[in-house]
């Protein structure tokens, strides 16, 4: 599609547009005849739009990468373990992980709350008849080969990620109540609820995020602070910081993960979810 | 312009391609009768061309009537010099942004020319006689003593008399003198001037403000509009109390000066269709306001989206090389049926307003000999490629036609291509009314 290709081109060039715009503004200060008001207004307009596109794309990429890194990690975990073995060291996490992979089938009693599948199903929107079905108790291998996917090699981190057509977190979380009715029918692949063990954290950012997600999966009645709405508050705080938020996201996340911050945000974030 | 297109022995191509920045034409304007054509360049000079009348011109082909259509240099003068604003430490360019002719009231012609900051009124007058027969000096060259004069005679016959000089015909001399200098009216760059039909006032517009001046008063102007979204302004040809200004978003606003002194509130708003993407907005904003000669307002140049449509895929590179900020002028013929605008690669395009049909032509020295017929060109964007089509990637973005003018009565167009001025005439339909 012509429009999609064009949109992609512009998104990919957002960073170059930003640098070109800044260079133009800088050069205009020394050019003969003084600053041309109209041209510089247009340049600043382009700069603003490019920045917004860049931030959106950056966050989408980050969250998608995180999702699938955890997916891969959990899949690897599942493959190593005997799917029927319930005596894992970190019992809570393993149960959640397996439950996440295998849908509702191997759900241990008692430690799941009803909302969890709803949340998961929203966050991982896979087409029906997806490789989710492959996650039988045997544990699928590198499933997902039948979905619409793009495999991306990140040259910076050397991570191979497979990008599916999925939703962003904030869309999922806000839509969680609406997804509820249909969720039971869907079999899920590994969700982004992030029940990965601590062993393979590549960075503090990832660790904080995984911790956050793990907390999301737990019973909200037991721990009202660590609800799935904490992800919303997380994102809100990042996006609200504007461009500087992009640079200081780690600090923001760590703050948000702390109990005090969550407690203060809890009330209104719950209101957003309810709405 | 009568130049030979061929140089048989010596290849002067490299010399032709070298363009001095100061020679780049920055504005083109016919006067009300079309006999005079003024061009301004980046070096601050104004060159006026005059149309050759049939009596002066060479032999014409059978069947042609009227003037030959050839324009020759009439006068050249330095209008603006580079200046410096000491308060802001800014250089003021001498580039002529706009020229406007005043309606002719006597034998002399008057025109307004403006650079970024200063508008000047020039008087262009001819002199073809000069007085001869002065005898103020005696044989030795000394000035005669007045007290020794006893008579005044017409002919130089007596040594002790002054003679009355006699006017005798001489070679035509064109004198251009500055009559008014309108300075210090604008903080930002003046982008347009427009003379009121009352013949007494004119307006000058910069990026933020419209000032109204009286042609006889240079130390005062009235600020009639402050709008951060101002792009250009124009008076209509027949109504002296309204004016129109355009904004960067492509909207036009009509203001009535009788309503209030400060025309902040517009009387009418014209909003054309605009594409919302930010890149396209840059293109839409690069459009001047123009009035039809009949006095109705142009709300949208319908051909505009089609003019540069093939450049959509190159928007990012156009932004990079600043070409996206190029302002292409849009001109009409006298019957308001055809619109013309410029493009890249020395192309310019004409559109029929009613049918929307367009034709692309090229103003390029190598391809046009005097009196040759222009052939149509095409930018290849897909589909079947014809011979002579130019691909979008091979367009030369340094050869842009930004400025042009259409004769007020006939189908004669003046195209400014960098440092060259091309004048084309429609020999098939010389009069606009017959088209």
TrEMBL record, chain B:
Pfam family, one: WD40
Membrane-spanning ranges: none
An example Gene Ontology molecular-function term: protein phosphatase regulator activity
Keywords: Repeat, WD repeat
GO cellular component: protein phosphatase type 2A complex
PROSITE patterns: PR55_2
PANTHER family: PROTEIN PHOSPHATASE PP2A REGULATORY SUBUNIT B
Similarity annotation: Belongs to the phosphatase 2A regulatory subunit B family.
Name listed for the protein in its UniProt record: Serine/threonine-protein phosphatase 2A 55 kDa regulatory subunit B
Organism: Fundulus heteroclitus (Killifish)
Lineage start: Eukaryota, Metazoa, Chordata, Craniata, Vertebrata
């Amino acid at each position: 599609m012509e429009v999609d290709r064009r949109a992609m081109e512009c998104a990919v060039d957002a960073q170059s547009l930003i640098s070109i715009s800044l260079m133009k503004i800088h050069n205009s200060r020394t050019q003969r005849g003084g600053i041309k008001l109209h041209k510089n207004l247009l340049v600043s307009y382009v700069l603003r739009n490019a920045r917004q596109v860049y931030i959106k794309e950056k966050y989408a990429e980050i969250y998608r990468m995180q999702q699938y890194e955890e997916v891969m990690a959990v899949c690897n975990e599942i493959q190593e373990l005997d799917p029927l073995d319930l005596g894992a060291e970190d019992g809570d996490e393993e149960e959640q992980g397996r439950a996440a992979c295998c849908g509702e089938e191997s759900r241990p009693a008692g430690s799941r709350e009803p909302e969890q599948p709803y949340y998961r199903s929203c966050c991982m929107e896979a087409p029906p008849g997806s490789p989710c079905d492959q996650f039988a108790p045997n544990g699928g291998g590198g499933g997902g080969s039948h979905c619409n996917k793009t495999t991306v090699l990140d040259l910076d981190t050397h991570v191979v990620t497979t990008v599916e057509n999925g939703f962003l977190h904030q869309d999922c979380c806000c839509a969680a109540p609406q997804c509820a009715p249909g969720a039971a029918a869907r079999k899920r692949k590994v969700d982004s609820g992030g029940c990965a063990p601590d062993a393979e954290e590549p960075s503090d950012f990832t660790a904080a995020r995984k911790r956050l997600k793990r907390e999301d999966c737990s019973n909200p009645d037991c721990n009202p602070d660590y609800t799935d709405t904490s992800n919303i508050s997380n994102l809100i705080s990042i996006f609200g910081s504007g461009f500087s938020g992009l640079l200081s996201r780690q600090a923001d996340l760590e703050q948000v993960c702390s109990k005090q911050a969550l407690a203060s945000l809890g009330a209104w974030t719950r209101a957003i979810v309810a709405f | 312009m009568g130049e030979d297109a061929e140089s048989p022995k010596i290849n002067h191509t490299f010399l032709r391609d070298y363009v001095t920045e100061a020679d780049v034409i920055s504005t083109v304007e016919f006067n009300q009768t079309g006999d005079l054509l003024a061009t301004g360049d980046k070096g601050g000079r104004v060159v006026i061309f005059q149309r050759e009348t049939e009596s002066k011109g060479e032999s014409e082909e059978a069947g042609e009537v009227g003037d030959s259509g050839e324009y020759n240099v009439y006068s050249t003068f330095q209008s603006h010099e580079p200046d410096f604003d000491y308060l802001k430490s800014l250089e003021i360019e001498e580039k002529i942004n706009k020229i406007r002719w005043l309606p002719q009231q006597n034998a002399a012609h008057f025109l307004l020319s403006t650079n970024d900051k200063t508008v000047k009124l020039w008087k262009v007058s001819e002199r073809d006689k000069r007085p001869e027969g002065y005898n103020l000096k005696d044989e030795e060259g000394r000035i005669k003593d007045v007290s020794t004069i006893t008579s005044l005679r017409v002919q130089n016959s007596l040594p002790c008399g002054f003679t009355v000089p006699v006017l005798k015909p001489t070679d035509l001399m064109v004198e251009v003198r500055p009559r008014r200098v309108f300075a210090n009216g604008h903080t930002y760059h003046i982008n347009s001037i427009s003379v009121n039909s009352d013949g007494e006032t004119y307006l000058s517009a910069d990026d933020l403000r419209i000032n109204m001046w009286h042609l006889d008063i240079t130390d005062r102007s009235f600020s009639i509009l402050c709008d951060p979204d101002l792009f250009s302004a124009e008076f209509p040809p027949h109504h002296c109390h309204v004016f129109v200004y355009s904004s960067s978003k492509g909207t036009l606003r009509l203001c009535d000066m009788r309503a209030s002194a400060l025309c902040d509130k517009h009387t009418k708003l014209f909003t054309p269709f605009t594409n919302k993407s930010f890149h396209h907005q840059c293109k839409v904003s690069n459009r001047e306001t123009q009035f039809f000669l009949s006095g109705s307002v142009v709300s949208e140049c319908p051909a505009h989206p089609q003019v540069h449509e093939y450049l959509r895929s190159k928007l990012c590179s156009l932004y990079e090389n600043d070409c996206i900020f190029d302002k292409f002028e849009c001109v009409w013929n006298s019957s308001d049926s055809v619109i013309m605008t410029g493009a890249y690669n020395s192309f310019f395009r004409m559109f029929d307003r009613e049918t929307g049909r367009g034709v692309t032509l090229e103003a390029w020295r190598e391809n046009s000999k005097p009196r040759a017929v222009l052939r149509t060109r095409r930018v290849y964007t897909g589909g079947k490629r014809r011979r002579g089509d130019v691909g979008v990637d091979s367009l030369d973005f340094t050869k842009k036609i930004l400025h042009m003018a259409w004769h007020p009565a006939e189908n004669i167009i003046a195209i400014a291509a960098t440092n060259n001025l091309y004048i084309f005439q429609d020999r098939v339909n010389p009069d606009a009314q017959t088209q």
